[in-house]
TrEMBL record:
Membrane topology label: Multi-pass membrane protein
Name of the protein in its database record: Homoserine/homoserine lactone efflux protein
PANTHER family assigned: ARGININE EXPORTER PROTEIN ARGO, HOMOSERINE_HOMOSERINE LACTONE EFFLUX PROTEIN
One Gene Ontology molecular-function label: homoserine transmembrane transporter activity
InterPro entries named in the record: LeuE-type
Domain of life the protein comes from: Bacteria
Family listed: Belongs to the Rht family.
Pfam family, one: LysE
GO CC terms in record: plasma membrane
TM helices/strands, residue ranges: 42-64, 76-94, 167-188, 194-218, 239-255
Length: 258
């Protein structure tokens, strides 16, 4: 007898059709693993994810900066890196390592310093970003060709660099560690398996954050029409560079929770 044709009960030998058996196994898997938390717990966490994602932070500033400079499509690489950094923090907090970081003054200071210095470095890099004005167009070209040639062209970092920048921005954010350690345990039940719960929380947070960060990038990209000359692009780079440096400087004053 094939493995899927199991008896319906101990009193009969009537086999179960394969489609019915598959539906039963899928239903059991979903109930035992994918929904390994109450709906009330999940919806509360879902709403909390929206509040966290919408609140401005270093990730939102980075998405708006890249969205305005590079467009939404190229900013997706940056957003992917942000999600990778967020997932790392989530699983670190879920595994209990985040509590160790908060308990150790030295470890927390190292993470905080690295995160602050990286944001300041990113801000300085954007502040000093080179702009190619492309003023080499010959005079006999049509007016529209000249305008396109003289439009500022920003050097777009490689996809790997954008992903790495997003990842480091979130992974070295001490505020993210504090939040994960303080908030995440409230949505995890000690009576249920840990890994399925972490997976549910990770997928929920990532889905919400992907939507919100792309929204920030799109909103910024719609303003690209106002930055068609080198002076405006330079002001844009200095504004977002200054914001990133200010956020990085503020991280030095983040304190551990008791």
């Amino acid at each position: 007898m094939p493995f899927w044709q199991k008896p319906e009960c101990r009193f009969t030998c009537k086999p179960i059709p394969l489609p019915v058996y598959i539906r039963m196994r899928v239903r059991h898997f979903v109930s035992d693993y994918l929904f390994d938390m109450t709906f009330h717990t999940w919806i509360t966490y879902f709403l909390a994810c929206w509040l966290i994602a919408i609140s401005p932070g270093s990730g939102a500033v980075l998405c708006m900066s890249h969205g305005l400079a590079y467009g939404v499509k190229k900013t997706s690489g940056t957003i992917l890196g942000l999600q990778m950094g967020g997932m790392l923090l989530l699983f670190i907090a879920g595994a209990g390592v985040g509590s160790i970081l908060l308990a150790s003054e030295t470890a927390f200071t190292v993470v905080k310093t690295v995160g602050a210095l990286y944001l300041i470095y990113s801000g300085i890099s954007q502040w000093r970003a080179r702009i190619d004005t492309g003023k080499t167009a010959p005079a006999e070209q049509p007016d529209n060709a000249v305008s396109q040639a003289t439009a500022p062209r920003i050097e777009v970092p490689a996809l790997r660099q954008r992903i790495l920048q997003g990842f480091l921005t979130n992974a070295t954010n001490p505020k993210g560690i504090i939040f994960m350690v303080a908030v995440l345990p409230q949505f995890i039940s000690a009576e249920r398996p840990l890994l399925p719960q972490l997976l549910i929380l990770a997928v929920t947070m990532c889905s919400v954050d992907l939507f919100v960060m792309h929204g920030y990038a799109f909103a910024a990209a719609t303003m690209q029409g106002f930055f068609r000359n080198a002076r405006a692009v330079k002001r844009q780079n200095r504004f977002f560079g200054g914001v990133l440096m200010a956020v990085g400087t503020a991280l030095f004053f983040v304190k551990r929770t008791a």
